[in-house]
Structure formats: structure tokens, C-alpha cells
Amino acid sequence: MKRVLIVTVGGSFQPIVTAIRDFDPTFVYFVCSTDSAKEVDGPGTPCVVRRGSEAIHHPAIVVQTGLTGEQYEIKILEDPDDPEEAYETARRAIGASHSRFPDHSIYVVYTGGTKSMSAGALMAAFDDGRCLVVNMRGQRAGLSHVLDGTEMPEVTDVRTLYARRRLEIALEAFARYDYPAAEAVLKEAVARDVDRDLRSLVRNLRQLARGLSAWDRVDYELATTLLKGLDRFLTPAHRELLGKARDMTGILKSAGARWQQPETIQIREVRNLGPEPVYDLLLNARRRAHQERYDDAVGRLYRALELYAQIELLRLEQPVLTANVLPERLPAEVRPWLEDQRRGERITLGLVAAYELLARLGHPVGLVWAERRSGLMAVLEVRNHSLLAHGFTPVSAQEYAEVADRIEGFIVAADAALNRRKGFPQAPQFPQHLPAEALAALGE
User: Fold this and answer.
1) Is 181 exposed, middle or buried, given 0-12, 13-18 or 19+ CB atoms closer than 10 A?
2) Architecture (CATH level 2) of domain 3-150
């Protein structure tokens, strides 16, 4: 096996000599203070063993181990008691090792030098995630130094520990609904050589992050594909919502694609339309608000409210498409009002006009709108003044809460007026905390 050693130097030189002889590295980076650098390649006999009052001198480490000048490099620390400098120095040495020796294993021997040097080198090894760390163990004189000649290298593979930490960071991203961040962190972890069960968990969580990210973007087809086989992370209610949101959106897209020929839309095609895409948008808005992205959240609330009206208009005995309303398909008493909405060759209805039409038709949802119209119009002004609509005013947390309260409350009341048994309150939010049994490979 080809190896590179990164060694902290200071104190006893014997463990370093033992490590170099045992591992027979291609190259060694010595991380040293100005004083300890002398032990590496200083002239004469700079390495000293003290036995009581007796001092026994030995040649430099590179002489004892037979390293040539092309086989090592010394990294000097200005302050060996600064763990940050030690960390950065070790990190750069690790990076250089990956670049210069891509097919080599990298071992960090961290037991020499000051405590800060050891801590910095160990932290750099953990953060890299591809190193093995070496602790020189041996018999001790009480709790003090290791007895000369008893040193033996003990190797710890940090790659599994690295993967576990990446997983923990990813779970924090799941709790924030930040699926791109979770997927990016897991992408790093899955490439490491880790325990089989842990590797399987990393793969599954990465797929879950990609699936929920697709669902978050309302890419229901991709989400369905990616989330297949991940039942242990999602409830049956999640599956039901995703399936219905996908199917209902498919119906809506099919109907909307025929805006130039709305007369071809038949009630049998849209009679099974339901409000699940609306519920999904409301939950999506809550996730954006959790991330303090209130403008995005309010934009989704607005679209959810608009979509609810569009769905109910399509479910009429004569389906109405808001992109191109045909007055002749509606009762005579509403046609004059519809003509007032005409702009150019066709009649199109925005959010408010869509609900006004439902109200004029005596539809249950329209009647709820009529009762709550003033309150809803007031909160819609928040969206209109947002940069993502027509203005430049950022939406505050309080404003978002007011908009959400009015719009969610309206949807719940409209569902009740339609006698829907399962409404928005039963729709499941994405999981912030994944089931413990599904994370068993992480351990306690």
C-alpha cells in the first residue's frame, strides 16, 4: 500500500521514528515548531532521550529512518500553541497529499508536539474525511509518557465517523426543509468508504432529499420516481397527498393546454378534480416561511387561493377555464358581467374575478368568498406590494402570518361548505425529523 504521513513533531522522537519505519511512506509532511524542526533534519545528534540526569543523543529523524530530501517537507508553525494555525497547516498538507499522491492512503500521526498541534491535525483529518489517523500507544510510566521502545501505532479509520457527521448535518438540513443542502452534504458522505449499513442509509437519505426537493419544486412525476421504495421515511398520508397532487395537476395541465378551445373540455374529464394541489401549495408556503422566506411564502399562498377557484370553476356542470371563459356556457344573468371582464378577443379571469363569478353563480365557495371578501382583499395587498409581485416592499413575518391565517382559514371554510370530510388540516407536512427506526445505522 502506498502511503503519505502527516506527522506532528515535538516531545519524544521515538514514536515518530517507529511510525515511519512501520508505515514505510512514500512521503512525509512534518508539522513542527521552529525548535522541533531541528529534530527532523538538524545536523549532528539533535534528538535526545533523557533518562534521569543522563541525556542520550541520536541523529535526526530523517537520518534514523533513511528518508531522502525528496521524501519529506517541513511545515513550520509560527505559534505551536495556536490550534487554528495547526489546523490550517495540517489541512493544507492533507490537500497537497491528495493532489500530489492521488493513489496514496493518507495517515495523520497526531501524537507529537503540543496539545494544540495534535488537536489541529486531528480536526483537519476528521474534516477531510479520507484520512486514517494514527495514535502511538504503548506502556506508560504511571499516567505520564509512554516508555521508550513500547510504542506501537494504532490506526483509526475516520471515514465512518466522517460519514456519521455528514449524516447529522444532513438531518439538520432536513429539519430546515433545505433539501439541496442535505443532498450536497450526503453526496460528500456517500463517496467515503464506510460501513455497509451506514452507506445504505446515506444513499437512501440522499434519494429522499432529492425526492423531497423535486416535490418542493412541484415536480410531482420526478418526486414519485425518486421516493419510490422509501416508505419507511414517509407516512401513507404523504403518499396519498403526492399521488393526488400529481394526478390533479395532470388534469389541470391537460385542461389548461386547451385554452384556445375550452369548449372541448368535458365534465367527465374534470369531475374528479380535488383540492390536493392547493393543500400542497399551502404546506409549501409554510416551509418557505420556516426558512424566513416570507415573500416566497406569500406568493405560494396567493397561487393556492387562485388555484382553488380555478378548480371549482372547472368542476361546474359546464366547465369554465379562467384563461378563456365562454359566456354562452354560463347562465344568462352573469353574461353581462362577464362581458365587462373582456380584454381583447377573450375573457380571462384573475383571482378576484374568478371568485366573483362563483359568488354570482351562487356556488358555496363563492358565498364563503362574499362573506370574507374584505378581509381577503386586505391581505392580498401584502402580496401585491411584494417585490415578487408588483412592488418593492419585503413581506414581514407578521404580515405573512396574517396572510396565511386569512387564506388558510378561507380554504378550510370553503371545504366545509362543500362538505369535504378530509381537508387541509389533515394534509401532512414534510417530515422535519425522520423516524428513529429508519436511522438505526446511526446508532444512539
Assistant:
1) middle
2) 3-Layer(aba) Sandwich (3.40)
